[in-house]
Amino acid sequence: MNQKTRTNPPGFGWAVLTTSLAFVVAQLDVSIVNIALPEIAKAYHAGISTLQWVIDSYTLAFAVLMLSAGSLSDLLGSKRIFQIGLIIFGIASAGCGLAPDALTLIIFRIAQGIGAAMMIPSSLALLNHQFAHTPQLRTRAVGLWTAAGSAALAAGPTIGGLLIAFSSWRYIFIVNIPICIIGYILSFKMEQTAKTNKKSFDLAGQFTWMLSVTTLISVIIEVPRLGFNNVMIWGGLILSLVLLGVFLWIEHKVAHPMLPFHLFKSGKFNSLLVLGAVLNGSYYGTVFILSLYLQKVLNYPSLTAGFAFLPLTIGFVISNVISSRVINRYGIQKPIIIGLTMFAAGFAGLFIAHEHTPYLQLFLPFLVIPMGMGLAVPAMINGILSSVDKTLSGTASAILNTARQTAGAIGVAVFGAMAAGGSTAILGAVSKSAAISICLTAIAMFLVTRGLRKTNTIK
């Protein structure tokens, strides 16, 4: 082993703090924008499809570039990619805060997604490298990393509401800049990870994957405006499927694919990918709908709506903090199953939502949904990292987060399409999104139970 990479390694707290700062800003920008949607609509005279693009341009870039970023992390070293991602994200956040129109905002949101795609796989790879020989410490580190990101995801609406109430919606982006600067400075003490032996970058695979997913999301977002029978909609769906087929063909043919197919021989790996997609698709889409519901149906002002999301933060923090102890004692299957049960139960609680629902009736589902997700996610991440060689940890975490972010973008697009048409449509979308989420959760639970049948402990 290269002794240079082992001199003055960062302590446990330093490593977790440094990597968690990146996850915090990446997750914060998924949810903090939701609470600002009405203000953004007023500033730019934007309709709901434009608002969907403000959300999905970020998650889409995040998703489609994650695989390439994971490959680059393994190829060039996670520390270098992590630092570049922080720089890009900070600059893009400044651009979002200063954007003069909706198109400029969307362009810089795409740039934010590029930075996030570089930060997340590399941050997990750095953690996995740091604690590769101490599984219990790795479990604890991943639990805290997840807790930080989950808390940021849940606290986004509350922080956004405060910033909007006392300043301007533009500060929801400016707040990222000092966090990126601190993370960049701290990262110099992190160890560089081992590099893989492959020498090339899968440009053709990245290009076809990006076009396929972007086309699919575009079609879903534009269905309410163009209509399902429009030739552009059907043409887009067909093009997306063709491009996906070309992507898979390329990955089979190239010497160094960004999507290593041998990873998918594991039932454990595959079932955890499905789990990640279901959790993010359901959660991201539902939070988008609930933001509109609180402000457009219940007529909450931004600050009140932001505080209404506070139970999400509490639920995530509680479950993420205790998850590492549960995983170390029981393995990954039990916390995932318990978490999914709570996740589905929380969505069932949203069926009570109507045009005059008291907030106290919404409090419990707002608390239980993130508690269930917060219990399942650390177990899922530990399962993914423990199932691959550490030199492929960047790629493995990138595949997982690609599945999660792609599903999140689809969730916002699909659930958002249900909400097009005013307060009545938004109200109906709450119940429909809850029903869909419950069904998807049941499917994920079945697949995970089968995939982890022989897995009782983290190896």
UniProtKB/TrEMBL annotation:
It is found in: Cell membrane. PROSITE patterns: MFS. It is a multi-pass membrane protein. Belongs to the major facilitator superfamily. EmrB family. The keyword DNA-binding does not apply. Residues 15-456 form the Major facilitator superfamily (MFS) profile domain. GO terms for cellular component: plasma membrane. One of its GO terms (molecular function) is transmembrane transporter activity. Keywords: Cell membrane, Membrane, Transmembrane, Transmembrane helix, Transport. PANTHER family: MAJOR FACILITATOR SUPERFAMILY MULTIDRUG TRANSPORTER MFSC. It holds the Pfam family MFS_1. It comes from the Bacteria. This is MFS transporter. CDD domains: MFS_MMR_MDR_like (cd17321). The chain crosses the membrane at residues 12-37, 43-69, 81-100, 106-129, 141-165, 171-188, 200-221, 233-250, 271-294, 300-323, 335-353, 359-385, 406-428, 434-452. The keyword Nucleotidyltransferase does not apply.
